[in-house]
Design goal:
5-stranded mixed sheet, 379 residues, alpha/beta, single chain
């Protein structure tokens, strides 16, 4: 027993002894009890001070309680996040003396969006297109203006469209216009059900607009290409399986980063990155309603900010994504990986076409341009 514990014990014993000896209803008894009570209070206060000092001397006593963050992202970002998260966790531990643990969920961007809206309590969402993030916003989970809360309009990873051919490229496919040739069979998913396929459609449309064509020319060109599509799969994974496993088609439209990732895993893939292309931008956002519920906003926002640093962008580059230029240091990352990515001289963005709300309404809603194209080719 240490000294302060002895003081408390002795004070308690004294109080009991006096209580037994005196009558509380006498003045003398009352004053005695008051004096002993004051002594006991002082002893306890001193004990509290000593206890506090002991905690200060012990670093582990100052350790903050562990915090958890749930990250929901589209499938092909997994290898990048698996490399980034330990680096961030170590940095946070050093700066805040707190362990941060990540729960991670990966899948198709559309299915992940639905899961979050239906109750998956994501703290952070990293999705394939801003249209999906907007759906979560409209569900009341993300506050409007999330694009402006972080650099680069919240676009933290990006890619471009690639044309994957059969080994040796026997059909000599080099540009988008080759996809309109009558002997070419094109594999892509249905843009009505697939986020990747929406990017593919926009890449085709952009390839006709950027060189100076009007919307009529773009409509004719895209209609011809889709008439060369033998089957519209539900999503990008099914499209890849149809091309690679079932041997359908001469060319597959896909993300460049998917191709690079496949090559890193030992696959041999022949592909072309057209010089006229679309910037496939993947946004990041904090899910406001959930972080406020979980009390982890500070760490969630710090992680999102960290994803824009050169350290994180290097990991995205290793996973096949083109680094985003948001800080000067990232230009060095771009130089380091430049030989990995063919140069694109004529790059369009979704903003060139009014943003995703307008694009969705013009092209993909019921009765919009894509449905009109399908009616023309009588699929």
């Amino acid at each position: 027993m240490n000294s302060w514990q002895r003081v408390v014990t002795e004070s308690k014993q004294s109080l009991l002894q006096i209580t037994n000896r005196v009558r509380v209803n006498s003045v003398k008894g009352f004053l005695s009890l008051v004096l002993v009570g004051m002594s006991l209070s002082l002893a306890i206060a001193a004990c509290s001070g000593n206890s506090s000092n002991s905690a200060t001397d012990n670093p582990s006593a100052n350790k903050k309680r562990d915090v958890e963050v749930t990250l929901v992202s589209f499938a092909v970002t997994r290898s990048a996040h698996d490399a980034i998260i330990p680096k961030f966790a170590q940095k946070w531990k050093q700066e805040h003396n707190q362990n941060v643990r990540f729960n991670q969920a990966y899948g198709g961007s559309g299915s992940q969006t639905r899961a979050v809206i239906d109750g998956l309590e994501a703290d952070i969402v990293h999705l394939a297109l801003a249209l999906d993030t907007k759906k979560i916003e409209k569900a009341g989970l993300i506050e409007p203006g999330w694009e402006k809360e972080v650099p680069n309009n919240a676009v933290v990873s990006r890619s471009v469209a690639a044309l994957i051919t059969r080994p040796g490229n026997p059909k000599g496919i080099k540009t988008w216009t080759d996809l309109a040739k009558p002997d070419i069979k094109v594999i892509t998913a249905d843009p009505k059900t697939s986020g990747v396929a929406r990017w593919n459609f926009l890449a085709l449309w952009n390839s006709a607009i950027k060189p100076g064509g009007g919307e009529d020319k773009a409509l004719d060109f895209v209609t011809t290409v889709y008439s060369n599509v033998p089957i519209l799969t539900k999503d990008a994974r099914e499209a890849t399986d149809a091309f690679a496993k079932q041997g359908q088609g001469d060319v597959l439209i896909n993300y460049e980063n998917e191709v690079i990732l496949a090559q890193q895993k030992g696959g041999k893939v022949d592909y072309v990155v057209p010089d006229v292309n679309i910037s496939i931008d993947n946004p990041i956002a904090v899910v406001d309603k959930n972080v406020d519920k979980h009390g982890n906003r500070e760490v969630a926002e710090a992680f999102v900010e960290y994803l824009f640093t050169p350290e994180a962008q290097q990991e995205f580059a290793k996973a096949g994504f083109r680094p985003v230029e948001v800080v000067a240091q990232n230009k060095e990352v771009l130089k380091e990986v430049a030989d990995r990515y063919p140069k694109v001289n004529n790059l369009g963005t979704v903003q060139d076409y009014g943003g995703w709300d307008k694009v969705q309404k013009q092209f993909f809603e019921d009765g919009a341009v894509f449905d009109q194209i399908q009616s023309k080719i009588r699929r």
